[in-house]
Amino acid sequence: MEIYLVYVDAIQNSNKFWAAIVEDGNLTVQWGRVGYKAQTKIHTLANHQRAIAKFHNLVAEKKSKGYSESQPEIDASRSVADIRRAIQLLNIIRPCIANRIFHDGYINALNEYLKIVPTPLGMQIDYHRVYRTVEDIDYQRELLNSLLTTPAPIVAAVAVGHAPEATAEPNVVSLKTISKNFWRHL
Question: Rounded to whole angstroms, how far apart are CA atoms 2 and 19?
Fold first, then answer.
């Protein structure tokens, strides 16, 4: 059992993550600023059930503080809707950058985008400069669109009496593997 949460508020300079995983009787928690080395704490509990109970308590506490679920990886089977929403948000952000208009709609779209696509923005978030040009937005939109072009699974030849099995692995793209290019302007 694991979870990845983020808390983003560009106005308040918050861009944090919190992650937890339960393994046997241990609960490992990591937290920090997106794009920076995480702090880690391991809770050693008596058994798996106690670790799960502690996990649920900590998750509820974080969500009550405004953290929302996200993911450090984008996989085509789970997050096609998230990828499409991120593209929609970039489409909202683009004219704001083009016209240098940073109204509440821009801030809301930026915060929502950063929740879907955790972004290393440094220690100080300047929401006026997260995107310098529309080309930066277009580049990110192009990369996100490339994640949507996942080929359909190939079905193996079926022997008599056997159920078909998909042979293709689901496409998983770690944000860490594309970060150098994706966030090239930062």
Answer: 7
Name the residue type at position 87: I
Three-state DSSP class for residue 57:
helix
Helical packing angle, 104-116 and 76-99, nearest 10°: 150
**Confidence (pTM):** 0.76
Whether 49 and 161 have beta carbons less than 8 Å apart is answered as no
For the chain, give percent helix, strand, coil, nearest 5. Answer: 40, 25, 35
Q: What is the pLDDT along the chain (186 residues), one digit of tens a residue?
A: 999 999 999 999 999 999 999 999 999 999 999 888 999 999 999 999 999 999 999 999 999 999 999 877 655 544 678 889 999 999 999 999 999 999 999 999 999 999 988 888 888 888 988 888 999 999 989 888 887 765 444 333 333 344 444 444 445 444 444 444 555 454
Q: Which two tokens stand for residue 183?
A: 């966030």
Q: In terms of Cα–Cα distance, which of 55, 57, 62 is closest to 27?
A: 55
CA distance 30 to 32: 7
Q: What does residue 18 show for φ and ψ, rounded to 5 degrees?
A: -145, 125
Neighbours of 102 (CB within 10 A): 15
Distance between CA atoms of 71 and 42, rounded to whole angstroms? Answer: 21
Name residue 27's beta-bridge partners: 22, 43
